[in-house]
């Protein structure tokens, strides 16, 4: 049984997609051990409580230095002994120590088709603003493993979403979530939980039956 720690900063819609997918069997052989947020007012913590999942706030505001926060975040995660860390709308920069402690065991969802509109500065609505400013016709979402770079780890799954004429950043954000993020994040977790993928030479390989 794959044990997950889910990190989230806001409303937790991707968290809800994971919870729902566990309930309806789209994700098997997995469970959420803890939900951790850097924001004590995050609605994601309420979603966790409603699902009977432990929810914890570890906020950088409670520590004198970023290093102290990083150490406490890692210590809290390790106390739940997760097999996989899921960044589901987590706006905290993942410290190097955590990446080193969980190589190819941290996954993130990014609301664009990496390598487009990703990296430093591309998060939240800024991604969709960038998409619309550039005038591309197709965007989407990407689930990838986390390495020491920003959105540079091995890609697990991607799903394309059409950009509509007249889209606003918020409208596009919602459609990307509904048509891509909420589908491929649970799918990626299910693949990992059932040993269907592996990383070779920096790329994700699907394991044949």
List the keywords.
alpha/beta, single chain, 36% helix, 209 residues, globular, 6 helices, two-stranded antiparallel ribbon
Strand runs, count: 9
Strand content: 15-25%
Largest sheet data: 7 strands, mixed
Alpha carbon gap, first and last residue: 20 Å
Folded structure, characterized:
This protein has 209 residues and is α/β, with parallel strands linked by helices. The chain has helices at residues 13-24, 43-50, 66-79, 96-101, 125-134, 169-193, and strands at residues 2-7, 30-37, 55-57, 84-87, 106-110, 138-145, 155-162, 197-200, 203-206. It has a seven-stranded mixed sheet, with helices on one face. 41% of the residues are buried. The mean pLDDT is 96.
Helices, strands, pairings?
Elements (H helix, E strand, L loop, with lengths): L1 E6 L5 H12 L5 E8 L5 H8 L4 E3 L8 H14 L4 E4 L8 H6 L4 E5 L14 H10 L3 E8 L9 E8 L6 H25 L3 E4 L2 E4 L3
Parallel strand pairs: 1-2, 1-4, 2-3, 4-5
Antiparallel strand pairs: 5-6, 6-7, 8-9
Short description:
This protein has 209 residues and is α/β, with parallel strands linked by helices. Helices cover 36% and strands 24% of the residues.
């Amino acid at each position: 049984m794959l044990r997950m720690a889910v990190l989230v900063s806001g409303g937790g819609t991707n968290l809800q997609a994971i919870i729902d997918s566990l309930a309806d069997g789209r994700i098997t052989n997995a469970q959420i051990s803890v939900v951790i947020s850097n924001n004590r007012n995050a609605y994601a913590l309420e979603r966790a409580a409603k699902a009977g999942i432990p929810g914890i706030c570890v906020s950088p505001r409670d520590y004198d230095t970023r290093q102290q926060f990083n150490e406490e975040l890692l210590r809290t995660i390790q106390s739940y002994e997760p097999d996989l860390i899921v960044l589901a709308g987590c706006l905290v920069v993942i410290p190097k120590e955590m990446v080193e402690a969980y190589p190819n065991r941290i996954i993130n969802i990014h609301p664009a088709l990496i390598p487009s509109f990703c990296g430093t500065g591309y998060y939240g609505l800024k991604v969709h603003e960038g998409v619309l400013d550039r005038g591309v016709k197709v965007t989407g979402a990407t689930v990838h493993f986390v390495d020491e770079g920003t959105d540079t780890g091995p890609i697990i799954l991607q799903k394309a979403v059409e950009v509509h004429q007249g889209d606003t950043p918020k409208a596009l954000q919602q459609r990307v979530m509904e048509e891509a993020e909420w589908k491929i994040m649970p799918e990626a977790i299910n693949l990992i939980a059932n040993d269907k993928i592996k990383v070779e030479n920096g790329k994700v390989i699907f394991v044949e039956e």
